[in-house]
Amino acid sequence: DGRKVKLSDYKDQIVVLEWFNPECPFSKFHHETAKTMVETAKKYRERGVVWLAVNSAIKTTPEANRDFAQKNKLPYPILDDRSGDVARKYGARTTPHVFIIAKDGSIAYDGAIDDAPPGKDQPSAGKVNYVDKALSELILGRKVTVPNTPPYGSPVKYGK
Predict the structure, then answer these.
(1) What is the largest CA-CA distance in the chain?
(2) Is pTM beyond 0.70 here?
(3) Cα-Cα-Cα-Cα dihedral of 41, 56, 73, 138, to 10°?
(4) CB distance 109 to 99 below 8 Å
(5) Element (H or E) spanning 37, and its range?
(6) pLDDT truncated to tens, each residue of the chain (160 aa)?
């Protein structure tokens, strides 16, 4: 909707940054089929977790993001990062690639949404939702036991 968003707007909150592309089969799978992202976001919303999707695809448009969000009833916004500046700063490599920012501003988790079988060309759901596990640990005041996993999906198509 044209508003600027800064991570500092969410100081003292847990923030999930989900790299996203509406054309990515892995993003589509986790939104349209498995509903992994929306269900995980809803589960933690009432616990004060902020979830933001970030679209760094050079060819995206605000309309494409808005249409996808409406069609899939996303309970969170999709941020426009066509320049790729934010993706580069975080080192986002795939869609999806998820980062969880702890209340103190540190990156508590960096990696895949789940443990889907590696090497698959077609999207599938894993048995362990790493983001769910990390969020539950953070909310309980614990250290994240698996802070990093290899992200999988389509490569982020950075802007210039």
Answers:
(1) 41
(2) yes
(3) 0
(4) yes
(5) helix 36-45
(6) 778 999 999 999 999 999 999 999 999 999 999 999 999 999 999 999 999 999 999 988 999 999 999 999 999 999 999 999 999 999 999 999 999 999 999 999 999 999 986 555 666 677 899 999 999 999 999 999 999 999 999 999 876 6
